[in-house]
Design goal:
With about 180 residues, this protein is α+β, with helices and mostly antiparallel strands. The chain contains 8 helices and 6 strands, in the order βαβααββαααβαβα. The protein has one domain. Helix content is about 45%, strand content about 20%. The longest helix is centred in the middle third of the chain and has 14 residues.
Length: about 180
């Protein structure tokens, strides 16, 4: 878990321009390694990851898939339930995978609980992901930074952008 950190999150529709959203967050001072995305299994990104074999794809398709994979690997974590996950950040690794009975390892999509979401909120967001495209989460060292991230998410079209405060994060740390 990422103790003593706040977070911001927002849900984006399938057609949201994720590259532009994450670029805006990066240009506003947020490190890509502190960003985690949970992508709907029905999202076009999931389809590309699922259907393209980078090594055997035709040159043009392989380049597209390789470019997408390279972009995904820049983030702290990317989760695509039933498809796969990529984790670059040590903090996300501990929050999402290193715990005993880790939901991501068990095939359970409750990985959001590992980030500090309540069981109820995690279930609600995971259910929304069936209709929406992506939940973007940004780990922040301070609540003021998280509030700024929420504002950026609001301006870039996030549905329900909100803070995940230290209390929720600390409660999650206690559940380990």
């Amino acid at each position: 878990m990422m103790p003593n950190r706040s977070g911001a999150y927002g849900m984006y529709a399938q057609d949201a321009e994720l590259e532009q959203i994450t670029r805006t967050l990066s240009q506003s001072g947020f490190d890509k390694q502190d960003m985690c995305m949970m992508v709907s299994p029905g999202h076009p990104i999931a389809a590309i990851v699922r259907e393209n074999n980078i090594l055997n794809a035709e040159r043009e398709e392989g380049g597209l898939a390789a470019g997408l994979m390279g972009w995904l690997f820049e983030f702290g974590a990317v989760l695509i339930p039933t498809v796969g996950f990529f984790i670059r950040s040590k903090a996300f690794l501990h929050a999402l995978v290193a715990r005993e009975g880790s939901p991501i390892l068990c095939g359970n999509s409750r990985a959001l609980v590992g980030l500090g979401f309540s069981e109820e909120d995690a279930a609600r967001f995971e259910s929304q992901l069936r209709d929406f495209g992506v939940l973007v989460y940004v780990a922040c060292p301070q609540e003021a930074n998280a509030a700024w991230a929420v504002e950026i998410m609001r301006r870039t079209g996030a549905q329900e952008p909100a803070l995940l405060g230290e209390k929720a994060l600390m409660a999650a740390v206690g559940r380990r």
